[in-house]
TrEMBL record:
A Gene Ontology cellular-component term: membrane
Coiled-coil zones: none
Name this polypeptide is given: SDR family NAD(P)-dependent oxidoreductase
Lineage per the UniProt record: Bacteria, Pseudomonadati, Pseudomonadota, Alphaproteobacteria, Hyphomicrobiales
Keywords: Oxidoreductase
Length: 264
């Protein structure tokens, strides 16, 4: 992929659908070439869509819950030989039902995707950004990270980690020109609730946010160098309440949203 004089390079993970797809689409429309990654074959189809927007695009199909999968993505970035101007670490996985009823291999994959693969990728690309004192990092956390996640305990725990990690890394880099932004969406109209087996829950059946709007909010926050962005006024109210309500009350509220069968 040769560079055009005016275009920058963005790496977007989880880009085959949902918020990640919309983030990559915004980047392509805003003058970025792309390296996009996901763990399913649709990544090749969406790459063609983004090329039609004028972007040079390289796609990587890899399991980003593994270091080998992240290494495959990093190898593609090195092969291109261009600096990464923006890293949008969006790849994530959810899992519903009570923790004791979950398959542990599936629960571990949530942790490995949301946390381990994310911080491995951020460290590798972030080191290069720091070395040249330029770059933007977006980490997709969630308002779920503010609440004890009854019937979604592992997922909410991983998002709490990412929210905290983003602020810590941002502070570590405050004397550089590398920025870190945490995008914290609420329930969004994506495949998440199907894949997490949560369609029969109250939150799964409810009206959700538009992923294109969420992505635009996040992109703008990243380009402005903001530390965080909660997308949507309802989600802002939720996070404000979460900062003052007792954890037990928050867990009970989450139970009403996420307990299997609560949509009925």
């Amino acid at each position: 992929m040769s560079a055009s004089p005016e275009r920058r390079l963005a790496v977007v993970t989880g880009a085959s659908a949902g918020i990640g797809y919309e983030l990559a689409k915004v980047c392509a429309g805003e003058g970025f070439d792309l390296v996009i990654a996901a763990d399913d074959a649709r990544i090749g189809t969406v790459a063609e869509e983004f090329r039609r927007l004028g972007a040079r695009v390289e796609e990587v199909e890899a399991d980003l819950s593994t270091t080998e999968g992240v290494d495959t993505l990093l190898a593609k970035v090195r092969e291109i030989g261009r600096p990464v101007d923006a890293l949008l670490a969006n790849a994530g996985r959810g899992l519903g039902h009570g923790f004791l009823d979950q398959d542990f291999a599936e629960a571990r994959k949530v942790v490995d995707t949301n946390i381990v693969g994310t911080i491995y990728l951020v460290q590798a690309i972030g080191r290069d950004m720091r070395a040249r004192n330029a770059g933007r990092i977006m980490i997709v956390g969630s308002i779920a990270g503010f609440m004890p996640g009854s019937f979604q305990a592992v997922y909410n725990g991983t998002k709490s980690f990412l929210n905290s990690f983003s602020f810590g890394l941002r502070n570590e880099l405050k004397e550089t020109d590398v920025t870190v932004t945490c995008l914290m969406p609420g329930a969004t109209e994506t495949e998440f609730f199907d894949e997490a087996d949560m369609k029969d829950t109250s939150v799964g059946a409810s009206e959700k946010d538009d992923p294109a709007k969420v992505a635009r909010d996040g992109f703008d926050a990243m380009m402005n160098g903001e530390g965080d962005r909660v997308s949507g006024w309802k989600n802002k109210l939720i996070t404000a309440a979460a900062s003052v309500l007792p954890s037990g009350m928050l867990a009970e509220q989450h139970r009403k949203m996420s307990k299997p069968g609560s949509a009925n």
